[in-house]
Amino acid sequence: MSTNFSEARSQEVVAAAFANTPDPRLRRLLTSLVGHLHAFAKDVELTQAELDAAIGFLTRTGQICDDVRQEFILLSDVLGLSMLVDAMGNRTQGAATESTVLGPFHMVASPPRRLGDSIALAPGGEPTLITGQVLSTGGQELGGALVDVWQADDQGFYDVQNPDAVPEGHLRGLFTCDEHGRFAFRTILPAPYPIPDDGPVGELLAATGRHPFRPAHVHFIVGAAGHRPLTTHLFVAGSPYLDSDAVFGVKDSLVTDFPLVEDAALAAKYGLPPRFRHADIELRLPQQAH
Ligand code: BEZ
Ligand code: FE
Questions:
Q1: Which of 70, 206, 207, 230 is least enclosed, having the fewest CB within 10 Å?
Q2: Could you report how far apart the first and last alpha carbons of the chain are, in Å?
Q3: Ligand nearest 77 Cα, by number?
Q4: What is the number of the ligand 1 atom nearest to the C-alpha of 195?
Q5: Ligand (nearest to CA of 201)
């Protein structure tokens, strides 16, 4: 069989070039990728100008990346690829808390804090208490579980987007649960925000008539010995964009009420004003597969 390239045999000729890849998984990934890529190019009759534009787009996507800007994650997010990979890797059968996209703003380590601490290091925003418990899917309390949280402020900015105005670590915290898997922290109600849209991903959204907004949410990564780590959000019930998240991250089970409450005992315990928002949640982790 000739190894010469032709339009008709492009997939097999290029796949054959990868046939001796020693790692079987890498061989499968590349062979399948080439097959789908060529099928796509043939399907749309891709032109040289379009290929050049795509290469230019990916080049600019790389060029805008730095320690705090990760445009490739953003691209994967707006294409729904992040959520698809997440869904396939975290099939839960209903008992575990559902996962969602990590996003690009977990690029700085969350400062360790004590239970009940405030993660808000700058003034402003609506006082909010988040309490909860980490459990296994079987209901076992996961004492000592780690709960890593980060969120945007009431203007929709993360600390890393606003370094001159707020201290690093603002609205981030790493908590160790008590022996019953319980945790509590004070914060402010986050606002919806646009994903960074001043780069290539923003161009893509604009060219396709899509808005860049995400509904208001708080990010969580939860870990406990012997259990599968969970990356998820709490979405604020009633927030705009719950039905059109730019990165497809919303799951109904993650939409959480943050009612305005007047609870004198909780206010005194946590040093909150008389009226504050309160969300109380359970986070259920499946056991680690052996
Ligand atoms: C975030 O929620 O932090 C996020 C997720 C995906 C893209 C941009 C931001
Ligand atoms: Fe976010």
A1: 207
A2: 45
A3: 1
A4: 8
A5: 1
What is the pLDDT at residue 145? 98
In the chain, residues under CATH classification 2.60.130.10 are 75-285
- The string of DSSP codes covering 121-173 is -SS-S-EEEEEEEEEETTS-B-TT-EEEEEE--TTS--GGG-TTTS-TTTTEE
75-285 has CATH 2.60.130.10 classification: yes
Ligand 1 atom with least separation from CA of 102: 5
**Three-state DSSP class for 183?**
strand
> How many residues would you count in the chain?
290
Ligand 2 centre to CA of 160 (Å) is: 12
Closest ligand relative to 106 C-alpha: 1
Q: What is the mean pLDDT of the chain?
A: 95
Cα–Cα distances (Å) from 14 to 51, 77, 244, 282, in that order, read 18, 29, 39, 50
The half-sphere exposure of 85 on its side-chain side, counting CA atoms within 13 A, is 11
Closest Cα to atom 9, ligand 1: which residue? 103
Q: How far, in Å, from the CA of 33 to the mean position of ligand 1?
A: 26
Q: Which residues are near ligand 1 (CB < 6 Å)?
A: 74, 77, 101, 103-105, 195, 214, 247
How far does the centroid of ligand 1 lie from the alpha carbon of residue 90, in Å? 19
| Identity of the residue numbered 205 | L
**214-241: pLDDT as tens digits:** 999 999 999 999 999 999 999 999 999 9
Note the pTM of the prediction, 2 decimals.
0.93
**Distance (Å, whole) CA 235 – CA 253:** 9
Nearest to 142 by CA among 58, 226, 201: 226
Q: Whose CA is nearest to atom 5 of ligand 1?
A: 103
Contact 282, 132 (CB under 8 A): yes
Band of pLDDT at residue 91, cut at 50, 70 and 90 = confident
